[in-house]
Design goal:
Helix 2 packs parallel to helix 3. By secondary structure, the chain is α/β, with parallel strands linked by helices. Helix 1 links the parallel strand 1 and strand 2. The protein starts with a strand and ends with a helix. The protein is flat. It has a three-stranded parallel beta sheet, sandwiched between helices.
Length: 76
């Protein structure tokens, strides 16, 4: 199973920039629009994800610190 990079950012332009550049480097990328969506992806695909890149401050809901704390608590 190929490992994936999860990019979480509420800004579509930033998500696309990360996705395009990482794919250009040969990486398999999954994107999420916010922390909650990122957490749901992590819950279902944690064994496939080797790296999470998250925005620190996102609009409403979970921020990047919340996401990192969730990962640290549930998937150390």
């Amino acid at each position: 199973m190929e490992k994936k990079i999860l990019v979480i950012d509420d800004n579509e332009s930033i998500r696309m920039l990360f996705e395009l550049n990482l794919r250009e480097l040969g990486c398999d990328v999954i994107v999420a629009r916010n922390g909650e969506e990122g957490i749901e992806i992590i819950k279902t695909k944690s064994s496939e994800i080797c790296l999470v890149i998250t925005d620190y401050e996102m609009g409403q809901g979970m921020n990047g610190v919340d996401v990192v704390m969730f990962i640290k608590q549930h998937y150390p």
